[in-house]
Every structure is written in C-alpha cells, then in structure tokens.
Specification:
Four copies of one chain form a homotetramer. Chain A has 369 residues and is α+β, with helices and mostly antiparallel strands. Chain A has a single domain (5-365), classed as Chorismate synthase, AroC fold, CATH 3.60.150. Chain A is 26% helix and 22% strand. Chain A contains eight helices and 19 strands. The radius of gyration of chain A is 22 Å and the shape is globular. Chain A has helices spanning 38-48, 108-115, 131-147, 184-199, 227-236, 257-260, 331-353, 358-365; strands at 5-6, 11-16, 22-28, 65-67, 71-72, 75-76, 81-86, 101-102, 151-159, 162-163, 206-213, 241-246, 264-266, 272-274, 282-283, 286-287, 292-298, 308-312, 317-320. In chain A, 66% of the residues are buried. The termini of chain A are far apart. The mean pLDDT of chain A is 93. The interface between A and B is large, with 117 and 116 residues. Strand 12 of chain A pairs antiparallel with strand 12 of chain B, so a sheet runs across the interface.
C-alpha cells in the first residue's frame, strides 16, 4: 500500500480519481527561493489536456490548477506545495455494464482482486486523469531544472508502423503536429494510419522519446538508486508503458562491444568528449554529462469500440463493446507525462547527489567554525 | 547518496567492492519462521560464480557464503539476516593505467566526477562482483516465494544475432547450455558466435528473460510503486542493462488494440481466463494472476582487448587496450541476477499487498476484542 | 527537505500554512473497505477548533473538511484519501513588525536561516493550524483502529502547577472541562491559574497524556522502528512539545529494578497478566498487550503580550510586544493532536507488523497453489 | 518489519544478535572524502565495551571492529561502509529456564508473540550488544561532524537519587568516573548508591545527557522530520530509554511563557544571541544555532538476582531468579550510545538540509551552463 509517493528528497504524493472531486499533488522538498506561479504549471497541464483535436477524447475539462500552499510572494518557501485541479466533467451518467465487467487490457480485474471493490467510474484511480498530478508536479521540477540550466523535452517517435526520420527532425514542429511528432512527414503518415485504425474501431501503440540536456555528470546513486533505474521506474509507472529503454536500449543486445562503447575524441575546441552516445548519457547508473535519452513503448488504448470477450463479476465471459469516445492513441498526450516523470527523477537526483562529497557540504555550510 | 537499499518492507542493503575484504548484504524484514541455511543461498551464488567455462572470467573464487545473523535453529527469526562472502582473489597486482584512465563503456568517469576519486581496483563498487549481494538476498526471497507456491526462472533468450526458438523451449537444457539458453540449437549457434567475437577481440550483448508463475493477483501499489515499475527499477539497476520490457514490451508500439488486449475465454475446465498474455501478467501495475514476464537487454561487456580511445585524468585522449581476461558476454552469469531482482521485488510486494484490505488485517489480528 | 510525510505503509503527507488557501493532508495506504465519511473526520477537527472558550484563540474558523478522493460509496477504496480544509480567516491585515523581527520562543529565526525567507503571516507553516492535517488524518487512523477494537484517548494531566488526581479520574468530564482535564477539581484550579497568567500577560505550559487500549501485543519493529521510538517521534514533532515519556517515563531513573519490573500474576480469572504497567505497554520496543501510555510536556505559548527583547532582521535587539490574541495554553487544544499522532503511529505499525511471520502471509494469501 | 534502518540520506542498517556470529552495521550515504580508519571507530566501541569495572558485565569481549568496504586509501569512497565485530564469548552454555520463561522488564514476551519464537540466547537481538552497530556507525557520523566543526558529548547526569551539580561540572572527569559522571562528588555518591543496590540484589536507573555544540542553524525538516522529533526517535529507540527531553524538557510544563522564552541580548562582542537556552537549541523543530541538549531517562537493568514472578510459555506464573552477572546500571555504558544516535541524527540532517535553498544547489553545481 501507500504507492502514491515518488522521490526521496524532492518528493511528491499524488491523489485523485477520474470522477471524484478532483486530482492533485503535494510536492514536498522543493528548495526555497524558486519563482513559481500557476501559469508555470498550467502550461504543462494544457499540453496533456483532452479535447484538443480529434485524436484525443472530447471530455471538456479546463484542468485549471490552483496553488494551495508553499508559495509566498511568488517564491517557493521550502514547505509543501499543494496543487489542486477540480474535476468538472463529473456528470452522473450510466456506467452501464462497466461496474460488472472486467475490460480486457484495463486494470479492472486486478483492482477488484486487490481491494475487494473499485471506483469504476471512468477507471477511477487507474484513469489517465491520474497523470494530472504527475504533470503538475513535473512542471515544478522543470522550473528547478531550468534554474540549473537543464532542459528536458519529450516527443512522439513512433506510432504503429510510422517512425520519425532522425535525419529530418524539426523540434519546432512538435506543437503543430496533431500527434506530437518532430517530423512533418512522419506526422502526416501517422495521422493517416490513425484514421485507418479509427475506421476499423481500433487503436494503436507508439513510442515517446525524452531527451535531457546539460545534466551535470555525477547524478545517480549506485547500486539500486541508479539514475537509469529510477528513470525506468518513473516511466514504467505511467499507465500503458510496457518497455523502457535508455540510450540505444534493446538494440544493445545485438551490438558488439566495439560498436557499443562510446570512445572519447577531442571535439572542435580540443575538448575530449564521448564521440558517440550509445549509453544515453548514463554509465554505471550515473549521468556522464552527455544528453540523457529515455524511450517508452506505449500499448494501444485498451478501450476500443469493437465487441470483445470480457470477464464478468459473475465469473462468466461476456461479448460486449465499450461505449464512449476514447483516444485512439495514448502517446500524443503522454509525451508531457514522460517529460514530467523524467524531470521529477532528475530533480530528486540533483538533491541526492548534492551531498556526495564532504567538500560539497563545506561549500554549503562554510568552513568549520 | 545512500543508494544501496532495495525494498520497502522486505528490504536489503548491499555493500562491497571487487577487491575489498568481501561482499555482503543485510536482509531486513524477512518474516520469521522461514527455514533457511547456507546451502539454500550457496546454490544461487554458484550459478553466478566466475570460472565455470571459457565464456566466464577465470577469476577463481569459491564465493562461499556465511550467515552471520537472523537465523536460529534453522529458521529465520524476523531479525536482520546478514550474509558475508569474503573476497579471496585480492592479490595485489599492477592496475597499470586503469587508475589514470576512464575506460569507454565503464563507470570510471562518472564515479570520479561524483565522488572525487574512486576505488579503481577491478571496478570497485561498479564491478560485477557487486551482484553477489543481490543474488544472496534473492535466494532468501526465493525461499519465501516458494513457501507461497511462487516459481521464478530466468534464462538467456538472445545472444547477439541468435534468439531462442519459442516453439522448441527445453528448460531442462538451461543448466547444460554454456550460455544458459533453454534451446540446444540456439545455444550451439550462440557459442559459435561467441567464439567469433572472441577471435575478433570483441564482446557481444544479449537478452535475459524471466518468468514468475503462480503469483497471486493483486500485487503492486499504484501509482508509483506499481509492480511493473518496481520490476523495471530492479532490473535496470543491474549493471549493463539498457532496456526492460514487460510482456510483449517494445512490440506493443506496433500493435493495434484488438491485437494487444488479452480477451477472456473459458479454459478446458470451464474457468474463464485471459486467452493470451501480452500484458505479461500485469495490468494497471497490479499482477493479474497470469505469468509475469520481464525481459532485460544487456549491453556487450565493455572491457575488450582491442585498443580504444580512452579519456585520461590528464584531460587527454589515449589509445590503449584493457588487459586481463573478461567475460565476452554478461548474460550467461546475469540470468540468476535478474531472477534475484525479480524475486526481491515480488517478496516486497507480497508483504506490501498483504494489508490492502481491512479484511486482511482481521485475518491476521483476529476479530476486534 | 521533504519532511511532511509520516508513516511507512499507512503514510500521510500534510501541507498548508496559517494564512494560505487552506490546510490539508493526503492519506496513502489506508486499507480498502473502511466506512468513512466527512462527519467522522469533522468530529475530531471540531475538538481542536479555535474559538471554543476564552482559553483558546478567537479566530473564527469553521474548519470544515472536504474528502476529495479515495472514498467511493462510503468506503475507502485503497487509493489516496485527500482531505482539504479551506482557511477562511485570511483577512489581509497589518503584520506590523512581525516580518522584520524574530520572536522569542518562535521558529522565526531558524526558518529564515534555513530557507532564506519565510511566510511570516500567522507563523506560516509553523503555525498551530498545521495540526489540522494531523488531526484529520488521525481521525481516519482512529476509524481503522476502532475496526480492530483499539481505543485511543488523550487528555490534559497537568497545567502549570496543577495536576490531575489519579484517584479521582472521570473521563466523562473531559469534554465539560474548559481545559480538557478528566478531573473536575483540578480543572477548576487550572482555570484559576490560567486566569492569573492571563492577568499577568503571560502563558503557561502543561502535559497531555494519551492511553491506547486493546492494542495487540507484537507491534513495533526493532531496533529503530520500535513502537516507542515512533511514538516519541510522532509526539515530539508536534509544535511546543519538549519531552515525551512512555509509561513511568522520567520517574524510572529513580527506580530500582525490583520496583520498575512488571512482574506477572494471575488475575481474577486465573489468567496471568502483568501485575503493574510501569512499562506503559511497551517492552523492547514492542507492544506487550497492556495499555500504551504516552505523555507529552508542552511549553507555554510563546506569544505573550508582555514586551520582550527580540532579534531583528537588522541584526539588532528590539524591545517589542506581540499583538493579537493567543491561547494562554497549548494543551487544551493539543490533546486531540497527541491522540491523532498516536493513532497514526499505531495504524502504521498494525500494517507493518501484519507480515512479521510467514504464517501470517499464508493466512492472507491462502496455502501455496 | 524491516526496522533496522536509520536515517534517510546518511543511512545505516544494523544487524546481529548477542550470541550469533557477530554484530555489524552498514553505513550508506556517507559522503566521499572523509578520512577514516578502524582506530577511529574502535575508540568509541571501547567506551561501550563490557568488563571495564565492577559496574559493567564481566563478559570478556575485545569488540574489535573490521572495515569491510567503502574505504580506499584511508578515505571514504561514497560507497557503503560495512563494519563487522565478531562475537567471541559465544560459549555454549545452559540457558536453563530462560527459553521457557518471559522475564519481567525484558522483551521476551513481545518477541515471542510477534515472531512466533525467539533467539533466547542472551536476549538475542534485544540484547545490549545490539548497540555495537549504533556506536560503530555513530563513530563515522562523528568524524563527519568534526569535519564540519560540530562537537557532540554525552555523560551521565543522574543515577537513582544522585544528580550532578551543574555548578561544578568537570568534563575531564567523565573518563575517570566509573559511572561516567562529569562531577567527582556526584560520581562518588552514585558509586556508593550502586554498591547498596548490588548488595540488595537490585539495579537502578539513571539519566544520560548529550550536548551538541556548533551545530549550524537550519537543521530539521518540518513538520514530521523535525530535528527534535528525530532525536527523540533516535534516543527512544535505545533499549531501556523511557523518556526523551529536549532543552528544559518536562520542566516546561510548569513554566510561564515569560520564563520559558529565550529572549535575545547582545553578548560581550555586541553580537545578539539568545540570552538563555531553555529551548535546547531547537525552535520549531529546526536548530537555532545554540547548543542542542537531549536527555534520556533509562530504566534500571531488568535482570536482577532477586526471585521474581515470571510468565512461562506454559501460561503459568513461576517464581524464579535470573542467573548470571548483569550491569546494575545501564547508563554508564549507554552514554556513548546516546552520543552515537545523536551524531547519526545530526549527520543525516546536515545532508538533508544542504538542499533547502535553490541557492545551495547553485553553490554545489555551479551556475547554469
């Protein structure tokens, strides 16, 4: 139990269900002296908000955030920052058979076994709305990272059979792409593929890639709180993620050592650097100063309009269709969630690694008196 | 800092360096009343021990484990179980240029940046010997799982270009295979490929797959301590792992919803079950009662005999070769490590999930007095 | 940083400042299946509410609690329970010199040194209003304890020179006493003493005692998470507490072993029991089945109307008085806070101790399949 | 379960029973670059070692510590420091009735209820030998504190009816006093009282006081990880402690606010300081820069030679005496344990508080690149 906390020193606790009063998060351990206002957070929430185009659900939610504590005169005070997003679209409706059926690909069955019953309205705690807490907290982490010069960006790299072409990346296109891809051509093809899936009353999977730049070398706490281990946990904890890769990821199983090792070479300024970045910026679980690269494979949205064989609470199989409108893909709205979880992980590790040397403590506390 | 603890209620702390006095682990939170002796643990350590064949390092270590506490009259007492494996092969030798060079693919550079210096003898804490603590603790977790009827098994599924053929799996062959594969033909091809790599003074990557059977539904604590999130962390924390997959893993990005959803169907006994297991036994971060499937992609051993361009502490690039003998693959000896990390994760989740309902507490403490 | 979390498995995170938008708490890890409604919580909040009589501050706050998540159809679902109490009395006012002065006995100076600045409005996070989160969460813990037959009750035992007479305790009087004492005569004397203090523009200290009955033997996790250790932490974390005692507390330093040991004797039913309870229900850090007794010494309210020498942010001493109306004692309203912290500690330990034996796991998960 | 870990960032895990193979501790999170050798630790262990005079048990143990990991070339490396003390005096002996009886004042009964059985040899994990792990780890914490100019010292202030006279303290006398008191006259009287107790086959209680000087203001993480809350937990977790006080402790319940508040005054150098230190160096749970004062009340040794009524595993009362030789007081050897727990708490808080401001992170990581 008690699984809604993330982080050790920069720590968050999220709460809320799809059709309850609201969704929120408390951020505890954010250093004092960070400029923060609601608009900083709203910008990220708007990126994950539904109803933006025909590939995301039509649920109309403003998802407006309120800062309830921890900020005084525009600055974080070092005390817990409580953020609240009220649910608006809680209209009582007929959940029909949902309460009595376990939908394939959904968490209905395990929730019922675990807790004895569940809040079946809109998926309850296992709804995608749960990610609001992650994104809101991630926005605060991002502000802290920016203060230290670190940039984090996530985008969609794969949708079904369509991948971005890495020789034609255009990050300015991400916001224009209805599916969040940094490649106009791939985006167009992905949209065509999505339309086809929707006509077939089906959904499809995809990949989100996240890159963190200017992360100082030295973050990560061997041997269990390694930076990659915590990124893997952070990203795998997002609903629908089935694989997490760092750097070249699954490809490394086919590499030889001479291909995979990032040798050093002097750059144009005569500074020695890793000539390649197969490692994705992490060696031995510690950041190595190169860009950190994380990739998450998302399964297709499990809610599809086709009839499927579901398990009933009565112990029998039922051929039923799931009504309502659902995103045909998860990835478009999930990119900002991956970004948030990456930012939260980095923020926590920045704080953890700050005390790795006696010398650092002396920088903070001054010489012995 | 303080990254050597794993688990919340079934908790371990590992310690030790490659060329220090020894390697060990303390297991805290193991329930009382579990039969345990050194032979139970030694069996697992023997599986990861070096020097077993020409694809593992020649370092001669008995790796004999000693139980220092927590067991009385053959049973765990509920107090911490301290396990010690003395290092034997600590002969003073010439580490040559290692102390002054950052080897490609190794953690040398990030360790130095993080801590200001490092124990460079044999990789220090980032050595593969660190996994002794994991495997020893995993053996204890495994005993607990067995007591509850749970079985966990890991094996090598890929080495370089060679994959096992899932239509010809023979789990009894794993121990006979010099590379730990449950498929005689694949094993033979993998060995041939390895020989080729070794002739080319190179190493190669691979994949370990782990299956846990008879895990009760209901394990996993949403939304951050989900079972898959913690398995991802557990497995990604093993040195050389660059990707973790659950169930169909990266494949899901190419699936449609209708392909990926595990529909229900009645089995031969008329009991409804998931007809497929694309989910790998986990839905919404909670075990669903099906076998749990985890896969880890390991990079090739970074130590290769070819000269490589390394970074020196002097800030210059040096073309040097790494001397000594190294495993050409990691996976053969790593399978038992993946198994251990999976067992540790499941043991902790069994304890965590035991209190998910008020009703469970009443079963433990009896009715209100 | 990140100090606003309490508990390991039954875990809470509180947030909120005196003059921010509100105060709240998220409870994570409460087992599913507990009947819970807002009235259950409100009853406890009403006991700590200000403005009840002339010995508590006149601040008019309804302190009405809203359950934002974690409860469905009147039952806890196992997901985080978020509780919100809006601050009403936030009227903008002149904080005068408070922002520039460090008040004696208050946390002003350490907060400023730690965080660089502080929310000086009404004490910010160090205000007594912070305890609303504790009390609200404690109410939920109390409901869980009651379900298992455990009763927890706190009351005031000392105010200044006045102590309750243990031969005349009347627990039904607690609610009638304006100072929360279970002894009519002592209450009357305490009130007289308080009036005297108030006339002298002064405040006074006191003691809260808390008793937990029907706690099963076996709670407490040696050697650092002992039940008494966690009770000490829980209670000492309440503002103004300067001492925590278990059982006979400080008196034991003057005892001989033969006086302090609780020998066993058969009771009227022939059942052997501890004949005395000097230990306060805890031996070796584990509950022994006898009533658990905790005592907290509270310092006098530091805000007094007399002029005092304060430190200014300008580095100079200033003779100033603190304006406004303040409780002359803390203990009357603090009893429910001690009760809450005791309940939270016990709830967490009930969950932790549920997995102390392999046998308990079998009771929860059934025999090995 | 899993209660043998202490600390969040500077974290330790202790293990070991009285009559097992040994006692030890792993320290995880100690910053790199601290000079450390076995003699540093041995000095503290020697202070708690038995057999030093007739007021401590005759058990002959060298209690020699071995550093197994985490130190390279005389410096901590930032990796876990494993410390081992082998038990020597494990001679097989007749434990007689101990296995079948629950001794008054001992943890025998709760251990049996909790775990189903116990290691009854010499108290097992609840033996005073468990404190070896605390003291060894505390020695490392102390080294870190010293590096930052912080001094921690504990001594005996009360034995039975004898208290030190605060107007005649002589800290250089502590090591000469057979009972660890910094006052020759009190020490003499305490010894006389002890002799009297021993003649009466009895034991007696006492108080240990600990003072930490030059602790920077700003340590402590409100609202649950306050410095005083964690000191209370740390000290209450020591066996036999029944009360913990900070500063004036229980006395504050009798004070008026005007007596208890520490007003500010300019010292001889014109620097404003707290004129008094009733708060014991902690306000609002955060260190205020004044000396930190902690006091622990210890109960008398429960093992006494007089016959007592004990509970048997057979459910009946038995009049029996405890054989063997036992310390008539706990406090003499416990002072160094209180010192250790105080040092461990301060070390963890130094690391935690180092990231309380964004500005501190910039000092560690440099300006944004």
């Amino acid at each position: 139990m008690a699984g809604s906390t993330f982080g050790t020193v920069f720590k968050i606790m999220t709460w809320g269900e799809s059709h309850g009063a609201g969704i929120g998060v408390v951020i505890d351990g954010c250093p004092a002296g960070l400029a923060l206002c609601e608009a900083d957070i709203q910008a990220y929430l708007d990126r994950r908000r539904p109803g933006q185009n025909r590939y995301t659900t039509a649920r109309a939610e403003a998802d407006a955030v309120e800062i309830l504590s921890g900020v005084f005169e525009g600055m974080t005070t070092g005390t817990p920052i409580s953020l609240l997003v009220r649910n608006q679209d809680q209209r009582s409706r007929d959940y029909g058979n949902i309460a009595e059926l376990y939908r394939p690909g959904h968490a209905d069955y395990p929730y019922d076994v675990k807790y004895g019953f569940r809040d079946y309205r809109g998926g309850g705690r296992s709804s995608g709305r749960e990610t609001i807490g992650r994104v809101a907290a991630g926005a605060v982490a991002m502000k802290l990272l920016q203060e230290l010069g670190i940039a984090v960006r996530a985008y969609v790299s794969v949708i079904g059979p369509v991948s971005i072409d890495r020789s034609h990346l255009d990050f300015s296109f991400i916001e224009k792409s209805p599916v969040g891809m940094p490649d106009a051509l791939a985006s167009e093809r992905a949209v065509a593929y999505l339309e086809e899936c929707m006509r077939a009353q089906d959904s499809c999977g995809g990949v989100v890639e996240c890159v963190a730049e200017h992360v100082p070398a030295g973050l990560g706490e061997p041997v269990f709180e390694k930076l990659d281990a915590n990124l893997a946990k952070a990203v795998m904890s997002i609903g629908a993620v089935k694989a997490v890769e760092i750097g070249d990821g699954t490809l490394v199983s086919g590499y030889r050592g001479s291909e995979n090792n990032d040798c050093y070479a002097t750059d144009e300024n005569g500074v020695p650097r890793k000539a390649t970045n197969h490692s994705g910026g992490i060696l031995g679980g510690i950041s190595d100063g190169s860009p950190i690269i994380v990739r998450a494979s998302f399964k297709p949205t499990p809610s599809i309009a086709q009839p499927q064989s579901m398990l009933g609470r009565d112990g029998k199989c039922h051929e039923e269709a799931i009504h309502g409108r659902h995103d045909p893909i998860v990835v478009a709205r999930a990119a900002v969630v991956v970004e948030a979880m990456t930012a939260l992980t980095l923020a926590d590790h920045l704080l953890l690694a700050a005390t790795s040397r006696v010398e650092n403590l002396k920088r903070v506390y001054g010489p012995a008196r």
